[in-house]
Design a protein that fits this description.
The complex is a heterodimer of chains A (272) and B (298). Chain A is mainly alpha-helical and 272 residues long. Chain A contains eleven helices and no strands. Chain B is mainly alpha-helical. The chains are: A mainly alpha (272), B mainly alpha (298). Chains A and B meet through α1, α3, α4, α5 and α6 of A and α1, α4, α5, α6 and α7 of B.
Chain lengths: 272, 298
């Protein structure tokens, strides 16, 4: 049985303090009554009120959510297809180029992706807006989805699919009733990842957006460029809260499913 | 090849061709064009209606003036150089912070690991922009750090940290820390304890067992983590624009301003092409490292 050593406790404590203190300060000071950011002027929720009555922010939030929903869904479909093609696709013409294109956006700087997509959209469309942001976000997030899904596909036994095919299933049926249920957790993670990446993106969105499609990060960026703002603290707190609840509940559900699967496997072994 | 297979491969393939590869071709093309007072603001544009003559004229007009401009204007050379420097220093700092954490996680009792893992991943799901922003209130002249240091009596006058390169380092270390911790943790967790016991049996002290066994075996994770931090840090835009000063030159910021403030599309494209050429080397090295690790795992 392993125990914590003092050295490890110290490094973990300091490390996590570094990771979390800035966000904790942000959350605490979002309830500060004064406008000055570092002087505590009593507890107040007035910045939340001000934030919620600010229509610009609400509109931007609504645009961002719609973009992220559309992006995540499109990216999950395309990314899962791409992962399937890479892992199970066998040989086909231009395979190297294909896998290169799937991985490259992961390591490409945002500014380059944003610039190149903007230049493409200028040629393709007469005006930019929500649609161009969705297309841009789908392109870079589908690569993250495909990485997540392909790591699951690699570990998933191919002979199960082959068994389904031998037993007379069509390739589509085999995919739908054998492959998909098995990779479902990865597909869900991929969707969530794409959704968050889209919510979060500033650079690519500012290149590819158009009038009427200001996303929340663009709005936040222009508000904080000149300094700290209490409304943004309130907004950050809301966002941190949502993410924390989301991540914790997702990991709890996941844990329960893993436990369930282990139990099932044990029962199966016992009865075999 | 049947139709279903063609569709299966064709859909994601076509998407990536249109939205990833074609844009790059356009960037390269515009980087070879000249700025013009027109819509679009560059020349030449491809006039297919003029047939063969049009295509020939188009290629004749392309030149590498923008690239020679980049080498003659010291701003760009400096920006590339200082981006490399900042990315390099921040990667080293991130490694120094991340390694002890990953080590502590890998040596933690089994039942703690999932929680520690979640604590590392949680900030990754929170908005990047907000995490960078949170440092603005800490590092400013009247920020928390200065207030705390003054109160402790460690300094007499507030330090200037915000809007300097130091703030950029802190920002990069902070935001990219999970990318460094996770690969290192993955290699350390797989490490067989009996190797360390063997080293100790053979007369190694604990410290030298770390330097001679643990550290070399965690190298693939360290290398992967360093690339995962270095590559995006090189083209970083948000961190230098929020935490850096006006003298913080990073190429991502230069590109953004060249495009949006100066509206010089050809030069912005040339900046992007050169940045990409610089990135090709670390990206290829990274891919090779990943490939090697995959093969070692199998």
């Amino acid at each position: 049985m392993r125990r914590f050593s003092w050295f490890n406790i110290t490094s973990l404590t300091l490390g996590f303090a570094f990771l979390y203190i800035p966000m904790i300060i942000l959350v605490i000071y979002s309830f500060n009554g004064g406008r000055l950011v570092t002087v505590w002027a009593g507890f107040s929720t007035k910045w939340y009120g001000e934030l919620l009555s600010n229509e610009d922010f609400l509109n931007a939030a609504w645009v961002t959510i719609r973009v992220a929903l559309a992006t995540a869904t499109l990216a999950t479909i395309l990314g899962t297809l791409a992962a399937y093609v890479m892992i199970r696709g066998g040989r086909f013409f231009g395979r190297t180029l294909f896998s290169g294109m799937v991985v490259a956006p992961l390591v490409m700087p945002d500014v380059i992706l944003g610039l190149s997509l903007l230049l493409l959209f200028k040629v393709m469309f007469s005006s930019a807006g929500m649609m161009t942001v969705i297309l841009a976000h789908t392109t870079f997030t589908m690569c993250y989805v495909s990485v997540v899904v392909s790591s699951r596909l690699v570990s998933f036994d191919k002979s199960l699919e082959e068994a389904a095919l031998d037993l007379g299933a069509t390739p589509f049926d085999a995919f739908k009733s054998v492959t998909l249920p098995n990779i479902a957790p990865a597909v869900v993670s991929g969707w969530l990842l794409a959704f968050t990446l889209s919510l979060d993106d500033l650079v690519i969105a500012s290149f590819t957006t158009g009038p009427g499609a200001t996303t929340l990060p663009i709005k936040i960026f222009s508000a904080v460029r000149l300094g700290v703002s209490p409304e943004i603290n309130a907004l950050s707190t809301i966002m941190i809260g949502i993410v924390t609840i989301g991540v914790i509940s997702f990991s709890l559900i996941n844990k329960r499913q893993v436990a369930q699967r282990l139990r099932d496997e044990k029962t199966a072994e016992a009865s075999a | 090849m049947n139709l279903r297979r063609l569709l299966l491969i064709g859909v994601p393939y076509a998407w990536l061709l249109v939205f990833f590869l074609v844009p790059f071709v356009i960037v390269i093309k515009i980087s070879l064009s000249d700025i013009a007072l027109a819509i679009p603001p560059y020349t030449p544009t491809l006039e297919l209606s003029e047939g063969w003559q049009g295509i020939k004229g188009f290629f004749a007009q392309l030149d590498i003036d923008n690239f020679t401009f980049l080498t003659t204007d010291p701003l760009y050379v400096k920006a590339y150089w200082s981006s490399l420097q900042i990315a390099f220093i921040s990667t080293a700092l991130t490694l120094l912070v991340a390694y002890p954490m990953a080590y502590g996680m890998a040596r933690a009792p089994e039942e703690w690991r999932a929680t520690l893992m979640m604590l590392v991943i949680l900030p990754f799901w929170t908005s990047f922009l907000i995490r960078v922003y949170s440092w603005m209130g800490i590092l400013g002249k009247e920020g928390f750090l200065n207030a705390a240091l003054l109160w402790l009596g460690l300094i007499d006058e507030p330090l200037t940290i915000l809007n300097t390169n130091t703030a950029v380092y802190i920002g990069i270390v902070y935001t990219y820390l999970p990318f460094m911790i996770l690969p290192i943790y993955a290699t350390l967790e797989k490490l067989d304890d009996s190797l360390l016991e063997a080293a100790e049996d053979l007369g190694c002290t604990r410290t030298s067992a770390f330097w001679r066994v643990t550290l070399p075996l965690s190298r693939p994770g360290v290398v992967a983590g360093c690339f995962l931090v270095f590559i995006p840090a090189l083209g970083e835009f948000v961190i230098p624009s929020l935490l850096g000063g006006s003298d913080t030159l990073m190429i991502g910021k230069v590109l953004y301003e060249e495009f949006f403030s100066n509206r010089d599309w050809p030069v912005a494209s040339a900046v992007a092409v050169v940045l990409l050429l610089i990135l090709v080397i670390p990206i290829i090295l990274f891919q090779r490292n990943q490939q090697k690790q995959l093969e070692a795992d199998q």
